[in-house]
Amino acid sequence: MSGAVRNAQRRVLVPLHAPKWGGIHGVQEAIGGALAARGWHLLIALPSSDAESAQRLASAGIDVLPLPLSRFRRSADPRIHIQSLTGLLKDVANLRRIIHERDIGVVQVCGLHNIQGAIAASLNGTPLVWQLLSALVPRPIRTAMMPVIRRTADIVMTNGSGRSVIEAFPGLDRMGDRWIPFRSPVDTRKFAPNDATRAEMRQQLGFGPEVIVIGTVGNRTFQKGHDIFVEAAAIARAHDERLRFCIVGAPVETNAEYYQREVIERAAKLGLLKRPDLTFFDGGNNIARLVTAFDIFTLTSRTEGIPLSLIEAMATGLPTVVPDVGGMAETSPHRQTGLVLENSKAADYAMAWVSLAADDSQRRRYGEAGRLLATSAYSVDAVADAHVAAFEHALLHRSRSQSRGRMQV
User: Fold this and answer.
1) pTM higher than 0.85, yes or no?
2) DSSP state of 244
3) CA angle at residue 99 from 94 to 100, to 5 degrees?
4) What is the CATH number of the domain that holds 217?
5) C-alpha pair distances (Å), 270 with each of 106, 109, 233, 337
6) Which of 237, 271, 301, 368 gives a 20 to 30 Å CA spacing to 50?
7) Cβ–Cβ under 8 Å, residues 19 and 221
8) Number of domain units in the chain
9) What is the per-residue pLDDT across 77-121, written as a single tens digit (0 to 9) for each?
C-alpha cells in the first residue's frame, strides 16, 4: 500500500501534552529519523512552555510545533477541571487547524486521557492511531472509554501485549488486526556498558567502589512510586550497609507538593539524607552516562506501559527489579534479566535488592542477558516498523470505512 499513499499523507501529527520530557518524548526522539527514512515524518505538538523538549526533539531532526496545549490533571478542585474542559475545546480547534494547514495524513494520540487529538482527527475525518501506554487512568474510566476508542480509532497501539495489558484495556483482544503492540525503542550504542564512564560517574556522584548502588529513573510523579522506593531503601539499608540509592528524574510542578511531603520529607525522617544514603539528580540529557553508575536498576511504579528507562537500563547491562505492572514482565522476564515482583510492597523491593546485592555473579548474568535482549528485540528499526504498519493500516481502515459509508448513503 505504501506506494499508493501520496507524500502529503505521510505526515503524522503527535500532540504531547505533558509539560516535561518523559518516556513518550524519548520514543519519538528515537524513532523520528527511522520513520523519516521510511517516508513518514513526525510533527510533534508540544506545550509552548516546554522549551527543553522542543530543543531535544529539534536536535534529533524532528519538526516541533509549540502550542498552548492543556491536559487533564488529578485534582479534587472543580476549577481545575473547568479549566481543563475550556482548554480541551481550544486544543481541538487548534489541532483541527493544524491538520488542515499541514495536510496531516495520520494523527497519533499518546495516552487514553489525551483525547483532544482524537476528537480533532474524528471531526476532520483523519486516520487515527491511538496509543494506550499505561493504566494510570482509573479502571472505571478505562472501561467506559474503551468502546469509544475501539469505535473511533483506526488502529490501537499498546506498549506490550501481555496479560496485564489486555486486562487493563477491556476489549483490546477483540480488535483483531486493528491492535498493533510495540515496545519502547532504545539506542543501544548510546546506552551500553562502559567501564570508563562508570568509574567517572561514580566518582562524580560520590559512590565509592565498595558500595552497591540501587538506581531508578523517572520523573518525580505519583505514578513512579518514589515514596515506595524511599520506604524500601530504609528497609534494605538496615540489612546491608553497603547499599546506596539514587533517584534520577526531573521535578514536575503538578506533583511538587506530593513529592516534597511523601518522598523528600519521608526520606529525611527515615535518615536517608544524612550521609546521604539517598541522592536525587535531575538527569537532563545525561541519563545514558548516569545509569552506568548503578549496580541494580529498579522501578517502583504504580502503573506503566513499557518504560523506556527499563530498556535503557537493560541495554546498559544492568540487572532489573520491577513490579508486574503494564508490559514490564514481558520486557524483562523474571529470573532471566532480573526479578519481577508480583507483590510490589516496599519490603518486597528491599529483599529483592538485598538478595541481588549479595550475589555479584547473578547480577552479571542478568545484566548480560538484558543487554542481549535489548539489542536483539528492542531496536529502533523494529519499533519504527511497527509504527509504519500502524500508520498504513490506519489509512487503509479509514479508506474502507469511508467507502462503506458512501455505499450506505
Assistant:
1) no
2) E
3) 100
4) 3.40.50.2000
5) 50, 41, 9, 31
6) 301
7) no
8) 2
9) 555 545 666 778 999 999 999 999 999 999 999 998 889 999 999
